[in-house]
Design a protein that fits this description.
The longest helix is centred in the middle third of the chain and has 14 residues. 43% of the residues lie in helices and 10% in strands. A hairpin with a 2-residue loop joins strand 5 and strand 6. The protein is of the alpha/beta class and 214 residues long.
Length: 214
């Protein structure tokens, strides 16, 4: 999560949507007073190598509460106050949910043999992913950000964001948290009818609002 006073934007970080890569790119334009929450040590190193500012100004005090990675929109709203929340440009990233769940599957199995995919989709962690990502950029069920970037066209989306915010230089998206997923086969190949419909149900709002299809 980033609150940039230098460029008057708030980045709200969803899970398994290249959020860390976007965060690293945005941190290259961050100022000394901006709030940047910590990420994993390897990602902080990648952020340093990319020339970005690493975690800073996230503690309490001076903040009213400690800011953290993947902080829900409602918490960020309370943290920064209504005036800043209303005035700053708020942005998050969304991804086709069926693809997102496959990404989570491989990420959680990166150090061990994965369970059958159909069984994984039944696990509570998949429902938690849907709930947590929704809360990251929604308040009381409604989208509360000014723009939701699409993972599927992220290079173009981040370039447009960069231009909209009049930030210096050009965006460069590193590949953070890569390597867990094998060479990209179509995500559809992992699904059966039951698992496909479970994802459709859990992520119904995102699927409807962004027009995602299987």
């Amino acid at each position: 999560m980033i609150v940039s006073h230098a460029h008057r934007f708030i980045f709200l970080k969803t899970r398994k949507t290249a959020g860390t890569s976007v965060e690293i790119a945005l941190s290259r334009a961050a100022g000394p007073d901006d709030v940047i929450t910590p990420v994993a040590d390897a990602d902080e190193e990648l952020r340093r190598e990319a020339g970005g500012r690493t975690a800073q100004n996230f503690d309490s005090p001076p903040l009213s509460r400690k800011a953290f990675n993947h902080m829900p929109a409602r918490m960020v709203q309370k943290l920064v106050g209504e005036q800043t929340w209303d005035d700053y440009y708020k942005v998050a990233v969304e991804r086709n949910p069926w693809d997102t769940v496959v990404s989570l599957y491989y990420w959680r199995s990166r150090d061990q043999a994965p369970p059958p995919f159909a069984e994984f989709v039944k696990e509570p962690v998949v429902e938690q992913l849907a709930t947590k990502n929704a809360r990251t950029y929604r308040v009381r069920g409604r989208i509360a950000v000014d723009r939701v970037l699409r993972y599927e066209s992220l290079d173009n989306e981040i370039a447009e964001l960069w231009s909209h915010l009049s930030m210096p230089g050009t965006p460069e998206l590193p590949r953070a948290k890569g390597g867990a997923r094998p060479a990209r086969a179509p995500y559809q190949e992992l699904y059966d009818e039951e698992s496909r419909e479970r994802v459709r149900t859990l992520f119904a709002d995102a699927i409807a609002e962004f027009g995602y299809t299987f």
